[in-house]
Structure formats: structure tokens, C-alpha cells
Amino acid sequence: xxxxxxYEFFLERLESCLEAKPLRxxxxxxxxxxxxxxxxxxxxxxxxxxxxxxxxDEFDESDIILLGVSRAGKTPVSVYLATQMGLKSANFPxxxxxxxxxxxxxxxxxxSKRAVGLTTTPELLHTVREKRYPGxxxxxxxxxxxxxxxxxxxxxKYNIPVIKxxxxxxxxxxTEISQEVGLSKKPTTLNNNL
Length: 194
Fold this sequence. Notes:
By secondary structure, the protein is of the alpha/beta class. It has 9 helices and 4 strands. It has helices at 8-18, 34-49, 74-85, 96-101, 106-109, 122-132, 141-157, 170-180, 189-192; strands at 64-68, 89-93, 115-119, 162-164.
């Protein structure tokens, strides 16, 4: 029995074009080391402990702080940032108390450079809220519109960048957020040699 490497010619040309030698270790790009796993585990733990505005006084330790009205997608994006990108993410809901006063708590204000505001369309927010609490004041289109406008005024007041989430996947939103705060995932030097 004889084996042929169907990719050998292609890999040699790629190696020549990139002027780089491959590691030739199967599955290496999917391998994680203990340091990476420990960082990711710490990020997940942090994310869970700082979900939905809990422990705002500890937001100094976060890599990213997500802000937004209820059902704007803060928690799923925060979890993705922690589990897939190893970033310590916290999120804070802009409730009626903060929306009506156009303010943020001190823990968020002093870390505003790491904060990103999430917004969506009133129609999408209405649809999501209506599924959760049908016929409620919380789900009314007028409530959704007013809360989104108030949130956007808060973002403007505190100079917080805004990401529009409507029609985007969690991966797209997370990538935009990490780029916005300057934490884009950079490949390691080992992966550059592949």
C-alpha cells in the first residue's frame, strides 16, 4: 500500500510564498496551553460574577463593559467574549432609574474607556420583549423606542462608542466590540509559523 500527500505541492508553494516554515504538527492550531485555559477560565468566572450589573465596584478589573437596555444582547455577547476570546467582560443594564436620570454608576463612569454601548432597533427590541412579556408596558413599541433613545443619549453624554446589534451574529458583535476598545484577538507567534 502506498500513501500520497495530496497537499504536499500546495504546501510547498504556500511555504515559499509566505517565506515561513510550517510546524507540521497535526491539530496544533486547535491546541490550547495551560496558560490560555487558565486565562479563559478566569474570564468566564469573572463574566458570570459580573453579569447584569452585579459587583459594579469591581468593574476596574474588566477588559470590557457592555451597556444596554434590557434584552439588547449584553449577556450572550459578554459570555462569548469570555468563553471564546478570554476577555473579562462585565455588563450593566440601563434600567429606568439610570435612563430617566441620564447617568451611569461610578464603577462604569471611571471605566468608560472600556465601555461599549449596545443598541438595536425598536422593532427588534419590541419583538424580543413581546415574546418574554406579551402585552406588557415593558414590551410596548413606545417604551422600546424611548429606552433606546435615552440609552443613546447616555452613550453620547459619556462618550461611549455604540455598536448596533440588529441583524448581526454574536461573533460579529464581539469582534466589533474588541476592535472598538483595542483588544482585537491577535494570533500568537506560534500560530504565525503555521
